[in-house]
């Protein structure tokens, strides 16, 4: 919640809603390897992240990438020529990360929509 004194000083009030399925797809595509984009599970992940904000999606990808880096570091000793991955290369990593990164605003969506209708 923003302070009412601060809100009075803002000329415009607008709701920045949660990302659409198209926006979620593009956000996830920017953090994942192209080979994953054609998998059925990729589309399922887009559906499962319906209530995730842009920040939540970024945090989800960051956690998946950290899991991937831990795997890389553990395996690097065996193969010193392996390059560190730049993009997430496994949907399983995203699914694992999703267990700990939950949507932060799901329970507030109705409240925000009510607010938007009042300030229009």
TrEMBL record:
InterPro entries, per the entry: AAA_lid_3 (IPR041569), MT-severing_AAA_ATPase (IPR050304), P-loop_NTPase (IPR027417)
Keyword hit for ATP-binding: yes
Highest taxon of the lineage: Eukaryota
Subcellular location: Cytoplasm, Cytoskeleton, Spindle pole
This protein's UniProt keywords: ATP-binding, Cytoplasm, Cytoskeleton, Isomerase, Microtubule, Nucleotide-binding
Gene Ontology molecular function: ATP binding; ATP hydrolysis activity; isomerase activity
Residues in AAA ATPase AAA+ lid domain copies: 41-75
One Gene Ontology term, aspect cellular component: microtubule
Protein name according to UniProt: AAA ATPase AAA+ lid domain-containing protein
